[in-house]
Amino acid sequence: MFKFIGVIAGFLLFGFFGSVLGYIVGAIIDRARALGAGGMNPLTNALRQAVFLETVFLLMGKLAKADGQISQVEIDHVEQFIQKLGMTTDHRTQAITWFNKGADQAFEIEPTCRRFMSICGQTRDLKQVLLVYLIVIALADGDFHPAEEALLTATASRLGYDQAAFKQLMDMVLNQSRFGSHQINPAEALDDAYKALGVTKDSTDQEIKRAYRKLMSQYHPDKLMGQGVPEDMIAVATEQAKEIQLAYDLIKKIRNI
Which long-range contacts (CB under 8 A, 24 or more apart) does 251-254 make? Predict the structure, then answer.
């Protein structure tokens, strides 16, 4: 929108060259509004992608070791996760290296979180996307260990989330995952759908629509890649979007909206 405003204002003030300058300035403003201040410069996107990828797999290793040992089930799950992403050979090799580093007893999450925040913290959604990916990983083996929850809560705190905000996010992802795995109890399906969208049965139709659109916007592939999510990690976001859609479809059907 600001691109067109910039073109018109620039042309009226300075003619043709003013319209070009107005378009550039407007494009920067549009990008900042869509991606956050950290996404204004597309030239830094490769760095954000590298830091995001590294952080995910370092913390994945830490999560796997959170309960004291890494089981074969967890190792198998990491392999399945990588295969599901369809990662490039280089990314796959590097991801395994980072996972093993994160699983080392001496590994501390503070420097990793601090670096992530310095490089990726000013983008609109990367912090939440990182936490969502880690929650999905923790839930994947069907056993959400208290040590994993404690580590995730500590990580969220370092990313600027208070306990209430993180608990709401975790509850949303948990209920979204039920739709994706078809583990919905028919008697509880509607309640789960509301929780998956972060709303309640008392929310208005407009509030539910806004929540749905906001979530779907956050998981839009182009927007995520623009912020710094590597292309071969978009598959997780795509799955989340499908789960959100299923939850919203159920609410729409029941409410006739």
Answer: 251/190, 251/193, 251/194, 251/197, 251/208, 254/190
